[in-house]
User: Fold this.
Amino acid sequence: KEYGSFDLPATSKLDDLKEAFRKCKKLDKNRMRFTIGDGKAKKAFTRNLTLADFAKDGDKIMFKDLGPQVSWRGVFIIEYFGGFIAPILTIFFADYIYGTDRPEFTTVQWFGLIGSFAHFAKREFETIFIHRFSSDTMPISNLFRNSIYYWLFAFLMSYFIGHPLFTPPASEMQIYIGMGVFVVSELSNFYCHIILRNLRPAGTRERRIPRGFFFELVSCPNYFFEIMSWLGFNIATQTFAGYLFMIIGGGQMVIWATGKHRNYKKEFRDYPKNRKRIFPFIY
Assistant:
């Protein structure tokens, strides 16, 4: 389907094409995606390319309407709120959930509930004050998918950790090791996010090669420490819901890290060759 015609210089960027197309289609620019080619040869028009870099004479540029959009920041705030509120409700309404004859929470149960609350409180803080997003929006369908994942597992983990029949690990050493791994990984993950924030000046979409700390070993140490954080959490609390949450989320982060690593290598010719994707010295 043709929506109109317009002329653009070869030096035009993605925002120029979107603005010209908006005047013809009367559509929010965040809903627009432009590609050339098919299948494995399909190539998307990205902000770092000019029109001349993206397409050559005779190429047909295809448009796709990405549908209703919602801000990245808004999605993160909503999806993490489930993890933020679930342990609070479990703590303050335990008598209503489990009955007034329930035993007091054990040290491990307090760690599990407060630890999960602290994790998601940290994620909300980072979303509001730390993260600088490379894209403004994502499809609104992602909001429902992501929220179901986070809210469902947050309430399942909190429910089973706070349950009167909760059984902690037999070894105190295991509990303390899990707690230690969780705390160190949470702090390391936060530091990685600070490094990423400082790479991109406020109000820009500039991309640079991350340097320092575990970025010297892997492209996405923030994902690595996220996985390690939940591993420590599960070593100490040992719930099926917690391990399943970690496995599903960890698998997704491996996919994201693989894509980011590939994009770094494609974008930066001097990208360090010895860096792994997500797991130091392994992958």
Remarks:
- The radius of gyration is 23 Å.
- The chain has a mean pLDDT of 93.
- DSSP finds nine helices and five strands in the chain.
- The CA atoms of residues 130 and 239 lie 31 Å apart.
